[in-house]
Amino acid sequence: MRSEAVLQPGGLERFASPGKGRGLRALRRYAVGELLFSCPAYTAVLTVSERGSHCDGCFKEDWPMHKLECSAMCAFGQNWNPSETVRLTARILAKQKIHPERTQSEKLLAVKEFESHLDKLDNEKRELIQNDIAALHHFYSKHMEYPDNAALVVLFAQVNCNGFTIEDEELSHLGSAIFPDVALMNHSCCPNVIVTYKGTLAEVRAVKEIEPGEEVFTSYIDLLYPTEDRNDRLRDSYFFTCDCRECTMKEKDKEKLKIRKLSDPPSAEAVRDMIKYARNVIEEFRRAKHYKYILCLTFELLEICELSLDKMGAVFEDSNVYMLHMMYQAMGVCLYVQDWEGALRYGQKIIRPYR
C-alpha cells in the first residue's frame, strides 16, 4: 500500500494529518521569519473597486484569462456585475481547459483535489451555489463551455472552502485568488506560519520556530475574536470546530471581552445580551457594507458604527474586541470619505489598548 506522505522539495511534505485529513509537515527546522515556500496564484480576480489602480501589467501577462472577462464585459456593459466567486470560478474553468496539466501552483495539492464538503452543505448554502451557477451562465454563457450542474456545484463548493482574499500592506481588500499549495495547510488558532501577499504571489513564513516533524498550521480566520466567535466562523465556512490549545484553554477570552469597571457592575445576563448584540451588529455591518459603499450611503454605515459604539460602551471597555472591531470599521468609513480628522480620532482610540 502506498504511503500518503508525498515528499516535496524545500524541506516540506504532504502527509495524512491525524483527525484533519491532508496536511503539510516540516522535514527540517525553520526559524522565525523564514520563508517556507511561495505559491503563485492558480488564478485571481481584482475586486471591482480597485480597477484602474492595480494590475496594469497583469492582464498583458494573463490575456487568455482576461479575454474571457473582456468579451463578457463588452457584451453587458455596465450591467456586468458577477460576484468575485463567480468570476474566480469562471477563470478556473477556463484555466482547466487552456492548461489541463499540473501548474507551478500545484506542487503539493491540485485544484481537482480540493475538499468540497458537499455532504455538509445545508439548503441555504446549496441555494446560494445555485444562484452563483445561474450568474455564471448568465454572464459567461456565450464565451465558454461548462460541465454539468452537479460538477459546477462541486466546483463552487471547492472555491468557497479554498479561495483566498488578497490584501495589500494596509489590509485593504484587493481581490480573490486560488493558491492550491497554500490551501493544503490545516488551521490552528495558534498558527506557526502566516500567509502574506506580493501581488498574486503568496508567501508562507514562520511566526514560531518549527521543528522537523511538526505540522505546519496557518489560521483561516481573524484571531482577534473570542473562542466561541472563532468556532462559529469555522463551522459556518469550513465545517469543523478547532481543538487547538487556545480553543481548549480559552486563556485570552477574558481579556478580549473586557467589561467596564463600574460602581454598579452589569449582570452576567446583561453581558451575555451585549455580546449577542455585538455579534449581530457586526454581521449587520458586514452585510450592509458592500451595497452601501456602492450606493454611496457611507453616512448610514458611520451611523451604525457610532450607535453601536455608544450602546456597547455602556458595558464594554474600549479594549474589548467588539469595540475595537466597530472602531476599525468607523475609521475605514472615515478614510473612504476622506474625513481625516474622524479617521485619526478612531485610529488613536484603536491603538490605545496596544500601548
Automatic annotation (TrEMBL):
GO terms for molecular function: histone H3K4 trimethyltransferase activity. SUPFAM superfamilies: SET domain. Gene3D superfamilies: SET domain (2.170.270.10), Tetratricopeptide repeat domain (1.25.40.10). It catalyses: L-lysyl(4)-[histone H3] + 3 S-adenosyl-L-methionine = N(6),N(6),N(6)-trimethyl-L-lysyl(4)-[histone H3] + 3 S-adenosyl-L-homocysteine + 3 H(+). Its main location: cytoplasm. CDD domains: SET_SMYD2. GO terms for biological process: methylation. Its EC number is 2.1.1.354. This is [histone H3]-lysine(4) N-trimethyltransferase. It is an enzyme of class 2 (transferase). It comes from the Eukaryota. Residues 10-221 form the SET domain. The keyword Methyltransferase applies. InterPro entries: H3K4_H4K5_MeTrfase (IPR050869), SET_dom (IPR001214), SET_dom_sf (IPR046341), SMYD2_SET (IPR044419), TPR-like_helical_dom_sf (IPR011990). Transmembrane segments: none annotated. It comes from Pavo cristatus (Indian peafowl). Pfam families: SET (PF00856). It is found in: Cytoplasm. Keywords: Cytoplasm, Methyltransferase, S-adenosyl-L-methionine, Transferase. One of its GO terms (cellular component) is nucleus.
